[in-house]
Amino acid sequence: MYEPKDEVFVRSDHNPLIQAKHLPYQANAVFNAAAADLEDEVLLLIRVESSSGRSHLIVARSSAGVGGWRFDDRALLHPSQNVPYESNGVEDCRITWMEDLQAWGLAYTAYSEQGAGVALATTKDFKTVERIGMVAPPDNKNAALFPRKFDGHYALLHRPRDGGGSVWISYSPDLVFWGRYSVVIPARGAPWWDAVRVGAGIPPIETPQGWLVVYHGVKEVAGGPIYRMGAALLDLERPHQLLGRTRRWLLSPRMDYERTGDAPNVVFACGGFVRGDKLWVYYGAADSSICLATADVSDVLSLISDAPDD
Ligand code: BMA
Q: Which domain holds residue 82?
């Protein structure tokens, strides 16, 4: 298999791990899964786009996190007229273990006739959810909660469409009311790989050096947008401070399954965790499948601190 030499991530030999044909029911596509490491198994909350074009989120489990996926009988979150802000679908969840709540925090894109905004919910068992509500109105996406509080406040990364295409952070005492907005990872401008839009990928991971944030960056070229993956480091106690970011991307669409699909040239991470010294990242490929890539955490951190030139 072709292994690019300029990327620290190693793709699973089993990619693409999950496609629509693996689901027990008919759907257009599966992609952009959140992930939780349950130690004896990996849980993914996968985005399924049905043939109506709307998406729902359903749990899939696998003991090794690679194959043998078992799907729940019904979706955990499904578009419903009872929840007006989700009437056109739920997309691109990120899961964070919230230490003080002893529950999983879900941050996802909630779609309605008014557009796509950021909604939060919690779950303890992945069978039922407690909705917190919409916390950032349209147009806003790519939200991820930090696992702990800062001076008594929760923190959330998100990406308002009109905020310069940059990742913003905000704080809340109760997960409901949010404020103290600031830009934390700016889009870098042309000609960079993360020129026009960036968005948090997997939830922030605490390391001795700072919060490690895997993010996607978009460059618009004549053939359309290219979505790639990089990483940034945020201050441990003041996460609105950017300490560094990779100069180069860490994963770029190269494989056929990343190049070809409903949205070509897309690698888009929503789920991941650290196991031992490895960073596991589940990413959507071309909006048509779910894939896995792993990297040494120390390699990713050194590409942020050393940021080698071209
Ligand atoms: C983004 C989101 C993602 C999608 C990506 C590539 O704006 O809508 O859900 O995977 O575009 O199409």
A: 10-305
